[in-house]
Amino acid sequence: MSKVGRTISEGQFLKTIFKKPLAYADRALANIYNYFKFWHKPINNHKIMMLTSRGSYNCHPRAIADEIIRQKLPYEIVWVVRTENIESKENFPKNVKIILRGSKEFYEEAATSKVWIDNSVTFSYLFAKKRKEQVLIQTWHGTFGLKKFDETVNNNKYWIKKAYQEGAQTDYCLTNCLFEEELFRSTFWKNAEMLPYGHPRNDILFKSDTIEVKQLVHDIRKRYRLNNEERVLLYAPTFREEQNSDLYELPYEDVIKALEERFGGKWVIMVRYHFMDRKLKSLDAGNPYVINATEYPDIQDLMLLADIGVTDYSSWIYDYFFTKKPGFLYVPDIEEYTKKDREFLFPIEITPFPIAKNQRELCDQIACFDEKKYDIDYQRFYQEMNCYEDGHAAERVVDKLKEIMG
Questions:
Q1: Rounded to whole angstroms, how far apart are CA atoms 400 and 198?
Q2: Which UniProt keywords apply (predicted)?
Q3: Are residues 137 and 164 in the same domain?
């Protein structure tokens, strides 16, 4: 493709001519150009395009891709990355084709892939319109859906518009519980077929005793220079619309003392900020108690390493839930958060995780952790969600892909 063709395809043509950016006109021109350039090309019935909101090799699409590769299936996997991830090729299997989101190659590959697999509403954000012969599988990126995200609470009207657009194109939604099925049907995926398979990214959490997982944990420890005696508290807070670094920081030394008092051993705190909060990665620089893992591509791996998990409102803790290891919620701004950021679909008090509204309470909750109560609360919450996770979700998805792709 010529240089001019590329700038048109990627929505950059008019801005190279006029001093004043013409974003809407450029986008309209790009949509028309890409439609006539690519959307008539033959569909490759053995090609799958995958992407995630983070733009790295992570989440449910990663687990599905890994299972395809494990089974040595003759599928071409095309993975869409963000600009900041384009150089991180060491995180990808060798037989995965990497392309940049929003590029000319993206639109061509999207037009010719039989299946699209997303974990958000990214295809609609990138103005990719599915052809009738193509199949879109929505995996989403949360578990148990703590935070509301529909138009009744989301102030980002553009996101809502894109969510409805992608929902209208979606053929299948992955779910891991009846609660989630009802949530998806009541929001943007009213006409999609629910696939009650479980969540592929959680499969690895059921396999902690395998050789592969033990090697993965060993490699992570080596990467972050952890010795075998050091125990890990994983702290990964959610993204907030209004930035306030004070809400993210913990009394690290006091937390370490509480951990030693209750659980014994030597502890470190591994911090992983939301990918939209990457600028916070220097917040704890130089702190001897903290290891920053914000750039690590997939939090699921870090859950295997962690002995204890702490978050605020992030959904990862509801994946970590399946490890049955202790978890805590640190929510210093819960009243403000539920008013300004997100409302909850259910009270966090019904979860098994002890709740702390200030730093002192967090240390006390850790020091006084009641394992028997946690186990009882765990079983009750699992049953209330009508959950059917069992560690074989990716296998079921791949069986469905075989059915779709022939």
A1: 13
A2: Cell membrane, Membrane, Teichoic acid biosynthesis, Transferase
A3: yes
The pair of three-digit structure tokens given for residue 59, joined into one six-digit string: 């989440």
C-alpha to C-alpha distances, 327 to 142, 155, 370, nearest whole angstrom:
17, 30, 12
* Residue with tokens 């080596």, as numbered in its chain: 222
Crossing angle of helices 359-367 and 252-263, in 10° steps, is: 10
Joined tokens for residue 23: 């974003």
CATH (domain of 74): 3.40.50.11820
CA distance readout (Å), 9 to 53, 108, 149: 21, 10, 31
Residue 248: pLDDT band with limits 50, 70, 90: confident
pLDDT digits 0-9 by tens, 78-114? 999 988 777 766 678 988 999 999 999 999 999 999 9
Three-point CA angle 124, 128, 132, nearest 5°: 105
Rounded-to-integer distance, Cα 308 and Cα 37, Å: 51
Report the C-alpha gap between 86 and 98 in whole angstroms. 8
Which structure tokens are listed for 104?
A: 């000319």
From the list 159, 133, 161, 150, the residue with the least C-alpha distance to 187 is 150
Q: What is the mean pLDDT of the chain?
A: 89
**CA-to-CA distance for 125 and 121, rounded, in angstroms?**
6
**CATH number of 253's domain:** 3.40.50.12580
Angle separating helix axes 23-38 and 104-112, nearest 10 degrees: 40
**Residue 234, SS3 per DSSP:** strand
What are the φ and ψ backbone dihedral angles of 173, each rounded to 5 degrees? -125, 130
Q: What is the DSSP letter of 230?
A: E
- Token digits of residue 270: 């591994």
Query: Is residue 78 situated within a structural domain?
Result: yes
pLDDT of 20 above 80? no
Taking the model in full, what pTM does it have? 0.87
What pLDDT band is residue 323 in, cutting at 50, 70 and 90? very high
Whole-angstrom Cα distance, residue 276 to residue 280?
A: 9
Residue 262 buriedness (CB in 10 A; 0-12 / 13-18 / 19+): middle
Task: Classify strands 308-311 and 290-292 as parallel, antiparallel or unpaired.
Answer: unpaired
* Helix (H) or strand (E) run with residue 35 in it: helix 23-38
Specify the number of domains making up the chain.
2
